Amino acid sequence: MPAQGPGDANVQISPQRELVHTDQPMDLNSLEFWKDLGKGSYGKVSLASDPVSEGLLAIKLMDKSSCEDIISTELDVLRMADGCPYLMSMRAFMETPTECAIAMDYMAGGDLRHHMNDSMLNTKTISDVKPDNILIQDTGHIKISDFGLSVVNVSEGDIVNYINGTNCYKAPEIMDNEGYNHLADSSSFGVILYMMSVGDYPFYSKGSLDEYHQSLREHIPYFPPGMCINTMAIIKGLLCKTPSARLAIKSSITSHPFFHSIDWSDVECDRSEPPFPYYYQEY
């Protein structure tokens, strides 16, 4: 789902409005919808406000007939994410006979791709944070969203045998229709870090999926002259073609030299300085 963020609608929203926090059901018809924020394969996200509290919400609307499994997975992950400062959580769930609506916090800072397109990110910013689904809060901190294609309850020894994800972020073993596990996430993370560092995808094609697949299997990403050694090292480890030799995303990765400036106890307690400045956008 393309992320929430700045748009060109002429709606003015008061900066005094707060986010809506509720575990109670909401009446979808009572919400005031302002504009569409993004649209994806399984629905769209709209900006809305609650007329009672005047709080802002991002409402994700999905057709129940076409994606019941995706809706179920998203709800499960959103409930598990409750309380984590860097994962999107659910504020309310509403449904009609044909549609469901998930109410989430509105992210006023847009998405990571928006910031990547505005300017190259320096190494400090990169080490602090699929770009479209990494949203920026008005405080400058991130939240990861859109969990409909997540695979849950995968432990270190488990193997998944069906294809999920967006092509340019898939690990080689997924593109090869092989079984995969949590190490596929390392490869996706490596793609994102490369894009944040270099401004392009690590593997390429001329519009052909087969060409991209070949590049993913055979090519080594290009690293510009003068690039930070620690940045290159972590990206190479994450993008290793062989899953068993790939750098795993687990607690030990925090000791990698790439993250030398990060105080992880502050990150985990939401005390760290955000990588982006305080952000407020009027529409």
Structure description:
- The longest helix is centred in the last third of the chain and has 16 residues, at 183-198.
- It is globular and about 55 Å long.
- The strands form 2 sheets. Strands 1-2-3-5-4 form a 5-stranded antiparallel sheet, covered by helices on one side.
- 25% of the residues lie in helices and 15% in strands.
- It has 8 helices and 7 strands; from the N terminus they run βββαββααββααααα.
- It has helices at 68-80, 112-118, 123-128, 172-175, 183-198, 209-218, 229-238, 264-268, and strands spanning 32-40, 43-49, 56-63, 90-95, 99-105, 134-136, 142-144.
- α5 (183-198) packs antiparallel against α7 (229-238).
- The model is unreliable at 1-20 and 119-126 (pLDDT under 50).
- The two termini are 21 Å apart.
- It has 283 residues and is of the alpha+beta class.
The radius of gyration is 20 Å
* Major β-sheet profile: 5 strands, antiparallel
Instruction: Specify the helix fraction band.
Output: 25-40%
Number of strands: 7
Q: Work out the strand percent.
A: 15-25%
Widest sheet: strand ordering: 1-2-3-5-4
Low-confidence stretches: 1-20, 119-126
